[in-house]
Write a structure and sequence with these properties.
Protein-Tyrosine Phosphatase, Chain A, 6-stranded parallel beta sheet, 20 strands, 438 residues, globular, 31% helix, 6-stranded mixed beta sheet, 3 domains, UDP-N-acetylmuramoyl-L-alanine:D-glutamate ligase, Rossmann fold
């Protein structure tokens, strides 16, 4: 590879690509719009660097650009480079050009991390050697160092923007709803089109038959298609009084009420996982065992404190409307819910929550962050707080026995926090601190 290579974006992904090229005795140039960079000390002195802005000359004189997922392909300089026919790919595509290990790849607006972890747990129990990478786990380039039976990739729409030929054994789309609309100027159809790219070079496509946006636009004879859904699909659910069953081809095989799983969304996630385990011929016994004992990931409907009949729940991974609606639907029978909403505006139609929330007299809303005034404009009974700490201090004086305090912001965290984990951990820290000293 004798091309003039430029890596744009020096987060974990950019550093992994830099190390990859240096191992091959290729010296790329690197660039980042930020000046204060966490990994700056890891860069050898002989590597050309430009920090603090995007250098137009460097970009337009490159022959291959490795674009980190945080940099939009709709950036004006990136569009200019595309017009000059400069090759622009991401780390997923770079990985694809060297990978020979079979891939299971998962995308969707919500549930990606849960399904990725569920599949990995079940496959490991079945003596498959696997590693997780992509949007969680290792940067995908680092996976090339591990000899595995399968790599399991969680892939975001940002990462799918720059793939060209990613060969996948099993590709899954769990669901598609409004998210990252600040990134996609043409709206949800543009967002969907990037999600659908996961099917391009997949042998087997698994998709949610309840969600028309997940359907492939073209069905090919050479591919196999498998469906799951709440009421339709090969793998679906059956509701009988208090019991919820997993069905395959309309035959009940498992009662979800015997599991530790929380919420219908996780039952649907399990259907997608079962489809994968059936393809791999993993025994149902192992599937049932692992699913029965699977607990929600941190920051997903995570109960963090119970005191005096009041339950505090951290759902910080809720960064879009649909995930907050899932949380509220799960808790809908509760006496009263104190809901934290707010954060960074991704240009999603947050007002769509208005109809849902206005009908619920038992939901009291505290809003924070960049979007607080916008939330107040369509939910006038909401209370604005400057920080989550301020909100917690107010709520703790108002809660009564049987109440739920739900931190499910429906927005990105980057206006006040590094990421959703930082936001969730701060919520946990403040709740525990206030209860300790109250």
């Amino acid at each position: 590879m004798n091309k003039k290579i430029l890596i744009i974006g020096l987060g974990i992904t950019g550093i992994s690509c830099l190390k990859f090229f240096l191992k091959k005795k290729i010296i790329p140039a690197i660039m980042d719009e930020r000046k204060d960079l966490q990994f700056i000390k890891k860069i050898p002195l002989y590597v050309p660097c430009h920090f603090g802005s995007l250098n137009r000359d460097w970009i337009l004189n490159s022959q291959l650009i490795i674009l980190s997922p945080g940099i939009s392909i709709f950036n004006s300089l990136i569009l200019e480079a595309q017009k000059k026919n400069i090759e622009i790919i991401g780390d997923i595509e770079l990985f694809a050009r060297y990978n020979t290990t079979p891939l299971i790849a998962i995308t969707g607006t919500n549930g990606k991390s849960t399904v990725t972890n569920m599949i990995a747990n079940i496959m490991e129990k079945s003596n498959f050697k696997v590693s997780i990478g992509g949007n969680i786990g290792y940067p995908v380039i680092d996976l090339l160092s591990f000899k595995r039976d399968f790599y399991i990739l969680e892939i975001s729409s940002f990462q799918l923007e720059t793939i060209k030929k990613l060969d996948i054994y099993i590709a899954i789309i769990l669901n598609i709803s409004q998210d990252h609309m600040d990134r996609y100027p043409l709206g949800i159809e543009q967002y969907r089109n990037f999600k659908l790219r996961i099917y391009q070079n997949a042998n087997i496509c698994i998709y949610n038959s309840d969600d028309i946006l997940c359907y492939p636009k073209i069905f090919y004879n050479k591919k196999k298609y498998i469906t799951f859904g709440k009421f339709s699909g090969k793998y679906n659910l059956s509701f009988n009084k208090k019991d919820i069953y997993l069905k395959i081809n309309n035959k009940k095989i498992f009662n979800f009420n015997k599991t530790k799983l929380v919420g219908i969304h996780n039952y649907l996630n399990s259907l997608a996982v079962l489809a994968v385990t059936d393809i791999l011929k993993i025994s149902k016994k192992i599937f049932f065992e692992k699913i029965s004992n699977y607990k929600n990931m941190d920051h997903v409907l995570q109960i963090i404190h119970k005191e005096n009949g009041v339950t505090w729940i951290n759902d910080s991974k809720s960064t879009n409307i649909s995930s907050t609606k899932v949380a509220l639907e799960y808790l809908h029978k509760k006496k009263r819910i104190w809901l934290f909403l707010g954060g960074y505006d991704k240009n999603c139609k947050l007002y769509l929550l208005q109809k849902y929330l206005q009908k619920k007299d038992n939901i009291k809303i505290f809003c924070f962050g960049q979007l607080s005034k916008k939330i107040l404009s369509f939910l006038p009974k909401a209370i604005i707080v400057n920080t989550i700490s301020e909100g917690i201090k107010k709520i703790i004086k108002l809660v009564q026995f049987g109440d739920i305090v739900l931190f499910s912001p429906a927005c990105s965290s980057i206006d006040q926090f590094r990421n959703f984990k930082h936001r969730g951990n701060e919520f946990i820290r403040i709740v525990k601190k206030i209860h300790k000293y109250k």
